[in-house]
Amino acid sequence: DSGVTQTPKHLITATGQRVTLRCSPRSGDLSVYWYQQSLDQGLQFLIQYYNGEERAKGNILERFSAQQFPDLHSELNLSSLELGDSALYFCASSPRDRGPEETQYFGPGTRLLVL
Amino acid sequence: DQQVKQNSPSLSVQEGRISILNCDYTNSMFDYFLWYKKYPAEGPTFLISISSIKDKNEDGRFTVFLNKSAKHLSLHIVPSQPGDSAVYFCAARGYGGSQGNLIFGKGTKLSVKP
What's the CA gap between A37 and A89, in Å, rounded? Predict the structure, then answer.
């Protein structure tokens, strides 16, 4: 158990809908990262938050947004869902922003299926 | 263009023997490399890492080697056990505007046969 929790574990929804994925980082970790893993791609970095502020952005679609709250949990919002958004979404956390040998610890993921 | 490549999609090894998983990268600015293990329906589990200033790091049965001139790293598992059967991902830490994000290879599925 990495200490990172994600809810829900599974989500089935329809095209055009909006969903929210939730992540609680390990105790004491200030950074939260979101990754997407689809069938034909490896793990792709989406976005990073550090202590409530956006720190880095990867290949995140404009239909997707995220935030980190004062209690450090984070939410990833996916809107106008398309079939191609079906994937595993992972959250990871680390103690700082970019410390030396900073390791990210991953949650169990949310499996999203868009029908 | 893939910056981190794991060219072997799968590897099969006998229990007790050595497993060697390979990873190549293209960007000499990467400063930290990690290996993760992933079981189906679970998140990646951190295994071992190495800073770019080192060429070897060891933790129990797991050793990671880094060859910066060749832009190559490898994970050695000795001895291999059936419980090691999983998908192994190599990751490199990004730099500059990407800050701390990890860039992953596509994984190698390791099967350890009893």
Answer: 6
- Is the Cα torsion angle B86, A13, A7, A79 positive or negative in sign? positive
Residues A97, B100 contacting (CB under 8 angstroms): yes
Distance (Å, rounded) from C-alpha B49 to C-alpha B59? 10
Q: Residue type at A3? A: G
Give A31's Cβ-side CA count (13 Å radius).
21
What residues have CB less than 8 Å from A78, skipping those under 6 apart?
A: A18, A19, A20, A21, A63, A64, A85, A112
DSSP SS3 for A83: helix
Determine the residue type at B35.
W
Q: How far is B33 from chain A (nearest CA, A)?
A: 9
Give the integer Cα–Cα distance in Å for A112 and B15: 36
Q: Please enumerate residues of B whose Cβ is less than 8 A from a Cβ of A.
A: 32, 34, 36, 41-46, 49, 51, 89, 91, 93-94, 97-107
pLDDT per residue as tens digits for the range B5-50 = 999 999 999 999 999 999 999 988 888 999 999 998 889 999 999 9
Please tell me which of the candidates A2, A56, A90 has its beta carbon nearest to residue B101. Answer: A56
Check whether B95 has a pLDDT greater than 90: no
